[in-house]
Amino acid sequence: MDVKDIIKPENIAYKKTDVLTDNIMHYCPGCTHGVIHKTIAEVIEEMDIQDKTIGVSPVGCSVLAYNYLDIDWQQAAHGRAPALATAAKRLMPEKYVFTYQGDGDLASIGTAEIMHACNRGENIVVFFVNNAIYGMTGGQMAPTTLVGQKTSTSPYGRDVELNGHPLRITELIAQLPGTSYVTRQSAETPGAVRKLKKAVRKAFENTAQRKGTSFVEIVGTCASGWKLSPVKSNEWMKENMFPYYPLGVMKDE
């Protein structure tokens, strides 16, 4: 029997979404980015909006998302993705526009951009990946690095007196009047991915209804930056990050 006789629509139990490209993902083993890409791509396919979607990614690990999602993309300067997304959405209001940003980008150099875009209530979706470290550039301390967490620039652990407190950016954004949906999710288990997928879909649906900014934080891992195995990274995330960055919906209007 030829393989073509087996691979028929009625025999397929699972198929990779066509929104994902065939490029082999470069991310480190255990990295959360790949799962998030897959989740976003599946929602785009299920909503049939592939030709209507524009992604904006800045600098950092998130910038390489354009290699894996087959949609229109724009690359922004470090931290400036919300500004570029604002322009794209205002010029083409019929499009689904989202940013895909890391914590070293959105919660640091891009703090002003994200705050003002959310305060204005731009009809965009923001995906914020928080792994509490600068993953691409050498594992430096990020605004979201936990107290006591060791990084290449805080080898003895983050010290509040020296470095300040970790920034709960999502809690701040939930208070802004321009946001309609603010949630924090994760992607370390099948159950968590299902919840994340619902959040991604709701965010896209909200932007189509012009409800304002939808903000989805995903607490993720950086096994290479944390110097842990993929399994240990998930355990560390649950034990240390979830208590400080609790999962759940913070705003839904």
Number of domains: 1
Quaternary organisation of the protein chains: single chain
Order of helices and strands: HHEEHEHHEHHEHEHHE
Estimated helix fraction = 25-40%
* Ends distance: 55 Å
CATH superfamily: Thiamin diphosphate (ThDP)-binding fold, Pyr/PP domains
Annotation, overall tally of beta strands = 7
* Beta-strand proportion: 15-25%
**CATH arch. level architecture:** 3-Layer(aba) Sandwich
Strand arrangement, largest sheet?
2-1-3-4-6-5-7
Secondary structure class reads alpha/beta
Instruction: Estimate the mean pLDDT confidence.
Output: 94
CATH topology: Rossmann fold
Estimate the global geometry from the Cα principal axes: globular
Query: What would CATH call the class?
Result: Alpha Beta
Unreliable residue stretches: none
Instruction: Characterize the largest beta sheet: strand count, sense, and whether it forms a barrel.
Output: 7 strands, mixed
Helix count from the secondary structure assignment: 10
**Computed CA radius of gyration, to the nearest angstrom:** 18 Å
